[in-house]
Amino acid sequence: MTDQPENDPELSTEAELSTESTTAEIETPPAGTEEYFGTAYPAAQRYAEHLATTGIEWGLIGPREVDRLWTRHILNCAVVAEHINDDDVVGDVGSGAGLPGIPIALMRPEAKIVLIEPMERRVEWLTMVVDDLGLKNVRIVRARVEELVDEEMFTVVTARAVKAMTTLIEWTREVISPGGRILALKGASVEGELVKAKKLIKRYRLSQPQIHVVDGGGILEAPSRVVEIVKK
């Protein structure tokens, strides 16, 4: 079992390896993006450049995503930080291209972010990008999250289009500290996933899920859906 993104057309951050070149220009960030990121904005721009170049070359993101990097990927993930505290230790499950972990790290430089990724190629890319951005609050761990029981403990686990909620709960429940929470970015099918996860949530005595609709104060025309489940 690997931490692979599900086939969700709304939230997919992964693309199959492609030799297709792209002539599209990087999407112009929506109005207010610079203010939203504050002093981290230059690093966010640099991250966008990595996604649009080495991210495509290494097969971490598809060429057709270049003209929507900010709205569909970077900002879509950055808004999760509105539910992250400065003292949180965040495990980003199946991090892939660093989404949502890297945007969260940019928004919350005091929080500790652990990018959890089992594939060597992706880990190498993440290491290169994190070093280039100078993100001192980020660690990268090559592993599946279920292998980290007894090694890591998080106050928050994040995931973007990584498996169904039932699987995510099973994988992460033992690495979340009491009072900690899952923050999962999900698409329109989330209600159905939560119905299927209802028995599991009760069995493990987790809180009833909350769905936060977050738009970054109006920056995103299509808001992000963040499912929050608390470990009691």
TrEMBL record:
SUPFAM superfamilies: S-adenosyl-L-methionine-dependent methyltransferases (SSF53335)
Biased composition (Acidic residues): 1-13
Binding site for S-adenosyl-L-methionine: G94, L99, V145, E146, R160
Enzyme class: transferase
Species the sequence originates in: Brevibacterium sediminis
Enzyme Commission number: 2.1.1.-
Biased composition (Low complexity): 14-31
Protein name, UniProt field: Ribosomal RNA small subunit methyltransferase G
